[in-house]
Amino acid sequence: MDFDKKNTGLVKKLEEEQLLQLRSVLLENGWELTDAPYCFYKAKKEKTTVAAYTSGKLVVQGKGTADFVEFLLEPYITGVELPEEQEPFSPHAGIDESGKGDFFGPLVVSCVYVENEDVAEKLSALGVRDSKQIKSDKKIAGIASEIMKLVQGKFAIVVIGPEAYNRAYAKIGSLNRLLAWGHARSLENLLEKAPECPAALADKFGDEHLIRNALLENGRKIHLDQRTKAESDIAVAAASILARAEFVRRLEALAGIAGVDTLPKGAGSQVDSVAAQIAGSGGAELLEKISKRHFTTFEKALKNGKS
Questions:
Q1: Which of 7, 26, 96, 179 is the most exposed, fewest CB within 10 Å of its CB?
Q2: Can you tell me the distance from the alpha carbon of 158 to that of 187, in angstroms, rounded to the nearest whole number?
Q3: If you average pLDDT over residues 105-110, what whole number do you get?
């Protein structure tokens, strides 16, 4: 979804299933939910409000609207829409990312080549689907291992650790441009292993020229398609699982650096609490090694960590 960060309001039509899924996401991220006339629910966090109307209309207001879109609506709701009717299979790679809505941990982009319909059917039988629909980290890791075997090593994973992420974001000031670089790099790396790959599909997260402009010579030789709800495609779904599995693995390693048992995923009250604890013990220097500085959580943690 293209969204101007200066906007303090959003009106969007969603399916009932999406609005109910959003309710769960809001609860998990520390929003206060209440009942209201003509609404499934209303929610509030700090100075931002969300109203989910029974008509299907979602209304968001407040200074946190851009963060809501970037870190909750896009990563957790857009990707769980009902899949459309599938097109006839043709060999292609799928690209997807994990970690963009998580304060702690890296940004991970994965690219997977599905070379024939037999592999596609085996992936489907394995239970491959959008990783956001799989809640168990253990299950994600198990499926990821099987995906790697089924595609016979024809995959690539690009990890942008927190420190590199913070340097890059400070330089370019755009998450979408950083995502585009990760998508392009993962595709280029995949093409070194599978030069026969004729096409690639990625979820559309911004101007479609962003990824194309970031591609090198090999990537520009193949057909690249970008569309919303791309996670319904088996190759993109496989990429989403590999990306999430690697994200979880890296997050567990970063917990050791932070000196805590677990770094919580996403953003919300639990994340705020752990971030403040870490800031209190190691300050901004430690926090920058394990988290994404441009999240509002970062400055909040530094402030709360001193109290």
A1: 7
A2: 10
A3: 96
